[in-house]
Every structure is written in structure tokens, then in C-alpha cells.
Amino acid sequence: MKWALILGASGGIGQQLVQDLAQSGWSLYLQGNHQVAHLQHQAKELHKKYPQQEFLVIASDFAQTDALVSLLNNIFTLDAIIAAQGITNYAWFNQQSDGEVERLIRINLTTPLLIIKHLQDKLAQSSNGRIILLGSVYGSRGSALEVTYSATKGALSAFAQAYAQEVASLNITVNVLAPGAVATPMNQQFSQAAQEELIAEIPAGRLANPKDISYWVQTLLKPESQYVTGQTFYITGGWLK
Questions:
Q1: pTM of the model
Q2: β-pairing verdict for 172-179 and 232-235
Q3: Which helix (H) or strand (E) is 170 found in, with range?
Q4: Which residues are catalytic?
């Protein structure tokens, strides 16, 4: 039985991953914080639909220092880690409190990297260990008013390049998927006019949808993708980069 840990399972992209990976035969650890009740209900429904698989919900707030312990204690066998969590805030960098900056770094970068560090031995027991990190086009391009977010997403790419070299001999691959603008709640906070202006800048003529991202996650999870590691793949519809 294949097991994947989805960080940020209750988010827009995370929810698509849950549905698609369950359909593909994966058993799942579903990490979430704000919508744990929804994940618990979803896990029950998925188990009814796929009775040969298991779906375990892990409530863990990555902004808290004890998040690591609460998550690691619930992980047993493991074949893949998919880090789909992430937050941003829109403000001038020098106007954000130190606490806001530290919280974003902890959720987007520090806690996921520590999780990977502590779960390396479990992934190494799989013949096709996978680490897939959800970055952003802003990790390469940078975004004013999202300085900390851009920094954390860029750091994921640097981490993947370096860490992939350490674990390649363990049959673990490490890659980053860096979407452009995706139709998730994170972007729905903008006005309709602002969204239309953004879409006009994208050569593909639309926002990405979570299915566009899930497709590439599933591709990187395949055994045939074993030779691809340390890379950042931009899924942007031709926008920016």
C-alpha cells in the first residue's frame, strides 16, 4: 500500500490532491489546521469509497513550536511527502510585524523542512521515495508586497537543488512545482476587476486550476520519474518567470 503525507490537505490545491491521489490508490495522511472537521468527514467518505485504503487526519498548526511532534507521532510507513501548505500576506515588508514575518516563514518553510528532515529514514525505506514541494513563480520572479512569501518559495527551490544530491542514492527524489496564479481561495480575495486584469497578462488566458497542479504531482509520483530530481517546474500558462 502506498502512503503519502499531504501537508495543507484542506487548501485549494491540497483538496484536489486528496481526491486525485485517493482515486489513484494512495492511502493518505491529511494534515490540516483550520478545517480539521472537514478533513475528518472527508476521510470517512473516502474510506467508504476506497475501503482498501486508509485515510488518517493529522491536526497540526505549523505556526506552533509543537507542530512537529504532533505530526511525527502519527506517521508510520511513508512513500511520499507533498508540501501543499502555504500562506501569504499583502503589505509593505517594513510595515509587517516581526511576528507576522516569523509566522509566515515557519509555516511556509521551517516546519516543512524539519518534517522532511525527521521523515527521511521512513522515505528511504520506500523504493520510490518522493518529496514534492509547492513553490511559486514568485520564488523566481519575486512579488512586491509579498516579500517574505517570495523569499520562502525561492528557498524551497534552493533546498530541493541541494537536498536532492544528498538523498538521490536513497531513491528519494526532491522537486518543486511552482505555479503561477491559481484559482484558489488565496487569489479569490481580489476583486473581479483585479482578477480580470491578471488574466489578461497570462498568455494561456486563464488562471490555473488545482487540477493543473495535481497532474504534475501525479506525474512526479510515478516510478518512471525516478531520474528527475532537484528541479523546479514552473506551471504558469506562460506568465512571468
A1: 0.95
A2: parallel
A3: none
A4: 149
